Each structure stands twice: as structure tokens, then as C-alpha cells.
């Protein structure tokens, strides 16, 4: 989301650290780069990011959605309400319920768009996945100090026991040093969402798909 700049900062910091470590001869970094294909998409919402940066150059911009005109309000100050919540626009359980987990109203913060993959940004992610043999994906958000995995669209949606154990084991390892909470989306972040990227990656492609909520409200 556009108002979550910590996610971009952390991702770029990781990439810089990885490349610097490999250049300095760190065997772990060198092995990762030589044995794995890594794809980085720094920003899924450049228009929302640019709006926040232009309106709030010192930080604090709160536009969440993309730049599509979706709201009937015409004041320039209301442009923050325009747009599609891109993390409700993916093509798995899109619009699963009418009133919870996303919205069909263009002025709402969780507006899911006119159809699944209606937005060029989410189609770009889909096309990258189609063009590369992606096996795992980590989505970066901010904030919450948490790590989430599928499913998010329904609190009662089951994961096969073997898959749940795999996610739990990996989550424990990933959060062992930072103390982040972890679990299915409703367990870790406390709400459900449909048309969400993790659910789409796992539900349609079987990818190991997780979301990091980096930082706290103070950050």
C-alpha cells in the first residue's frame, strides 16, 4: 500500500545488504545469489506513492490506494479516497463476501475494483509470476510486527495439515530473532481480506506465499 513506506525501505535495505555482503565475500550471501533466482518488485503502487510524496514531502501521507478515479467527491482534498486497494484486487476469492474483507464502494479504503485484476498493477504482478518459475513470494507491508500466511479470505478456510505445519515451522524460524507474531492472517493481523495477494499466490499457484508487516505504529 502507498502509505506503507517502511516496506520499500526495508526491501531496498535487504537488497543492498545482500549485494554488499556478497561483494565482501560472505559465503551465505554468495550462495544465495548463485543458487537462487531472486525477483524484487520495489513498489506495486507508484501512483499512490507519488501522491503521498507530492502532498506530504516530509512523510505522513495516508493515501492507501492507487490513482484510479473511483470516488464521486470532487474536491482535490478528497483525492485520497480515490483508487483501488490493490491487495483486494487479486483473482482468488475476489469479492468473496459483499460487506467484509473488501468493499464494492469506490470511496472506501478497501475498494476491490470493478473486477479481479482490473488494475494494471496487479496484472503486472500476475504477469511476472507467469513469466518466471516462482516458487515462493514474500509481500512486504507496514506496520504490525507480524508475519501472515494463507488463508485471509475466511477465518474458517482450512489449510491441509501438512501445509499448515510447513508454514508454522517456517514462520517460527523467520520470527525467532525479531519476535514478530505469526499465523494465518486472521491470527496475526486480526482481520480477514479477500482478493488478497497471499491467498492468490497459494490458492491458484501453490506458492509458498507470506506477508510481512514491518515495524510498529511508532515507526
UniProtKB/TrEMBL annotation:
GO terms for biological process: proteolysis. The keyword Phosphoprotein does not apply. Residues 1-219 form the Peptidase M14 domain. SUPFAM superfamilies: Zn-dependent exopeptidases. InterPro entries: Peptidase_M14 (IPR000834). Its cofactor is Zn(2+). GO terms for cellular component: extracellular space. It comes from the Eukaryota. The active site is at 213 (proton donor/acceptor). The keyword Cell wall biogenesis/degradation does not apply. Keywords: Hydrolase, Metalloprotease, Protease, Signal, Zinc. Residues 1-21 form the signal peptide. One of its GO terms (molecular function) is zinc ion binding. Belongs to the peptidase M14 family. This is Peptidase M14 domain-containing protein. It comes from Emiliania huxleyi (Coccolithophore).
Amino acid at each position: 500500500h502507498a502509505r506503507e513506506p517502511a516496506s520499500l525501505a526495508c526491501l531496498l535495505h535487504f537488497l543492498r545488504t545482500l549485494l554488499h555482503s556478497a561483494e565482501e565475500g560472505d559465503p551465505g550471501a554468495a550462495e544465495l545469489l548463485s543458487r537462487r533466482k531472486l525477483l524484487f518488485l520495489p513498489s506495486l503502487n507508484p501512483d499512490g506513492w507519488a501522491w503521498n510524496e507530492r502532498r506530504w514531502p516530509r512523510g505522513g501521507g495516508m493515501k492507501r490506494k492507487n490513482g484510479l478515479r473511483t470516488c464521486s467527491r470532487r474536491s482535490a482534498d478528497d483525492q485520497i479516497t480515490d483508487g483501488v486497494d490493490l491487495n483486494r484486487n487479486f483473482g482468488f476469492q475476489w469479492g468473496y463476501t459483499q460487506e467484509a474483507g473488501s468493499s464494492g464502494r469506490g470511496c472506501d479504503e478497501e475498494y476491490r475494483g470493478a473486477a479481479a485484476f482490473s488494475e494494471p498493477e496487479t496484472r503486472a504482478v500476475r504477469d511476472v509470476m507467469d513469466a518466471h518459475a516462482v516458487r515462493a513470494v514474500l509481500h512486504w507491508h507496514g506496520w504490525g510486527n507480524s508475519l501472515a500466511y494463507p488463508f485471509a479470505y475466511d477465518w474458517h478456510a482450512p489449510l491441509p495439515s501438512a501445509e499448515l505445519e510447513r508454514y508454522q515451522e517456517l514462520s517460527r524460524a523467520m520470527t525467532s530473532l525479531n519476535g514478530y507474531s505469526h499465523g494465518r492472517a486472521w491470527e496475526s493481523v486480526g482481520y480477514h481480506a479477500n482478493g488478497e495477494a497471499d491467498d492468490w499466490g497459494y490458492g491458484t499457484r501453490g506458492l509458498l506465499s507470506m506477508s510481512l508487516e514491518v515495524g510498529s505504529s511508532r515507526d
